[in-house]
Specification:
This protein is mainly α. The chain has two domains: 35 residues; 87 residues, no CATH class. It has six helices and no strands.
């Protein structure tokens, strides 16, 4: 009888250890799932190099005085579409894109020479996840 109790106790202990290991694994998986990797700004830039190239082209075209506001608006739509297709949960692409473009266009209207598209793209990349 003593041996049976000891064997049962050992088996019960093994089951408890296995249960605790499973709980620990679940806790670790949950913690890793919640954790997001923060990229440095230069890693974000290298990830979005194509939109930076497009922004540069639009800023060069936008140097023509009469059409700079129209060019900024068109690029704003392109930037919005680019980030909507790569949208992450909780990211409001319309506000995040329209505010830098609108602010840059107003400043560009008064100063005349400002790379609005590049600035808006850099701001959007900076605040992206």
């Amino acid at each position: 009888m003593d041996e049976a109790t000891t064997i049962e106790d050992l088996r019960w202990q093994e089951l408890q250890e296995a249960r605790m290991m499973d709980e620990e694994k679940r806790r670790v998986k949950k913690a890793l799932k919640k954790r997001t990797i923060k990229l440095s700004f230069f890693q974000k830039l290298s990830k979005h190099w194509i939109i930076l190239a497009v922004a540069t082209i639009f800023d060069i075209i936008g140097l023509i005085p009469g059409i700079s506001v129209v060019i900024d608006f068109i690029f704003g739509l392109i930037l919005w579409l680019y980030f909507v297709l790569k949208k992450t949960k909780g990211d409001n692409a319309l506000i995040d894109v329209s505010l830098p473009i609108l602010g840059g266009s107003v400043i560009d209207f008064f100063t005349g020479v400002m790379p609005t598209c590049i600035a808006a793209t850099l701001i959007k990349i900076w605040f992206s996840k």
